[in-house]
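Q: How would the structure tokens look for this protein?
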Amino acid sequence: MPDYLAPQLFHGIPEDPDLFAGIHSRFTELPRNMVVFLRRSISTGEFHLHHRFVLLLVIRGAGGVVVDGDYFSLTPAEGLLILPFQSHYIPNPAQLRKRFWFYVTFEFPTPELFGPLSKTPFQLTPETSALFEALIQSYHQAREHRQFDELPFRLGLLLCRLLNQQESRLTHGTIHLPGQQVVANEFLRRLIRWLHDNLHTELSIHQISRVMALSPSRLRARFREETGMSLGAFIRNSRIHRACTLLRSSELPVADIAQRCGFNSPVSFSRSFRQTMGISPMAYRRRRE
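A: Here is the predicted structure in token form.
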């Protein structure tokens, strides 16, 4: 027997098992249609809403991520899994445009499996660090040999480990959410949460200024400094992405969705929706079928 397979490695494996009682796993499928890439700089902040998972890991250059109205501050060796159809946006202050972030986007047939990881930043552990390293090495080898069959298994192992760690923390009450407990930007966290909770209303700059205890001009300027986007554009995008969620997940009439998203008429809603998404609300709803 080769030296690298020491006999003690096999201790505890039964010699006479029940051959009809196999081991079952929740992971009966593998990630599909993977895209692996880096972001070393971000020129403009953009909203995203799509059917794919996004796994991101911060290597260098701390920053924030907004997911469905919650702001998460991430530092190196921290990451986040964004689930399908979660509206997400990466604020882009000028001083943080040089970043080194690692991304994997993918599809998975049973997204609900990863519900415990939703809006739950993770920190690298020795185990997950080794799995990330194995995934990246496998990617380099696959590109060299044009053989990518191993990559979904590597990503599946990493996701399984992240999921098991999170469920263990929940079970034992030791959960730690770095992006929420160590918030580097309380201003953004509080403002974005308040805006998200009040998108169904007609928001005015004076109303928001009173909530944040800032003058309208200072509020606009600070928001742009922190995110790279105007406050008005952020609110419009947030309204449209909430509408996308309602169009996709409910049978509410378009007029009701317009009202719930803070538009004063179905006409203005449809016009704004088409300008942002490139199609009408009804056309977007039909795409889910």
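The first strand starts at residue 32 and ends at 41.

Confidence is low (pLDDT under 50) at residues 175-184.

Upvote if useful.
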